[in-house]
Automatic annotation (TrEMBL):
Keywords: DNA damage, DNA repair, Nucleus
Any one biological process term the GO annotation gives: double-strand break repair via nonhomologous end joining
Protein name, as recorded: Beta-lactamase-like protein
Species, as recorded: Tribonema minus
Subcellular location(s) of the protein: Nucleus
Main location: nucleus
GO CC annotations on file: nucleus
Sequence similarity: Belongs to the DNA repair metallo-beta-lactamase (DRMBL) family.
Amino acid sequence: MPIIVDGFHYAASELSRVYFLTHMHADHYGGLTRSWDCGLIYGTEPTLRLIGSQFLRPLPLNTPTHITVGGAPVVVTMLDANHCPGAACVLFEMVDGSLTLHVGDFRWDRETMLQMNPVLRALQLDCLYLDTTYCDARYTFPPQRQVIDATVAAVSQHLRGSAHASTLILFGAYSLGKERLYLEVARRLGKRVFVDKARHQTLLCLRWPPETMQLLTTDQSSTPLWVVPISHIKFPAMRTHAASRKALQSDFKCVVGIQPTGWTFGGARGGGGGGSAAALLSCRRQGADVIYGAPYSEHSSFTELVDCVRYLRPRRVVPTVNCGTAEKARAQVALLTSAAAQPLLSDAARPSVSAAGGAGSAQPLSGGIVEA
Ligand SMILES: [Zn+2]
């Protein structure tokens, strides 16, 4: 019986009774309905709190858990995916001892991932289901911490001085995702960040520690930092958005939008000022208003994907994004495995395993099916 990962469009009780939801993004929970009755759904506690269903089975991170799939024992370990809150990679150890890692969506930063998920240090993976959102050598955006530094510098520059009260900073965010960027800017500037009541309710489900929740406010008149849907970060919608709010400051002279996405990298940069850190941001202006494109991605860059494959050395790689045909999937695998085969000096620190490479066959998948 297969285990279905993020593939609720394929769900049928005759096919499987065991499902995994890696995180609460629509392209992963799509197909999951309120009348769900196809079987158990495993996920992390934050993810399952957000979705709510009697069929949900929360699993703790970094804790091997025994489940039964079609009568066969499987050991499952949820790992932090370094993506949106609650997002997990899922490690499956089958009854024959084979290991499969389905990453869901993830941002591979080797140091961060190994620190959060020590089990990754000593794996001999048979199969890696990989988030290939940025499987193209053009996407080599910087680490998140550098983008956070650059954003802090840019926002700080706009808020500095007497014009501060007439400047509004809008952070674009998904319903879930990009939180670390605006929270870190707020924390480092000693300010709170406005979120509307619906977003606040969502974030309450995550049960963050009090020191993090205290950075949030639902009073938009109390702070120049606001979180808005990412689609609002454009001219002139940004200005309309600001004017529509019943804030004390309704006549903002300058509206600054922060548009965080990996897709912005490669555009014009250098307009931010404030030193070399701000030069990471792209900059567009219209009148007094500014939009910064921040290459703040919660998916892995191409360089990071290569590093992931190089480090984990799976026998087989299965792409899960932008691989709608077998040809596209094969091309992604070939690109990654050939790049990963190039030696790096840093690999000296990697414990040796017998299964090098990973140029296995690929199949197009929008979700992932692991045979148990
Ligand atoms: Zn996602």
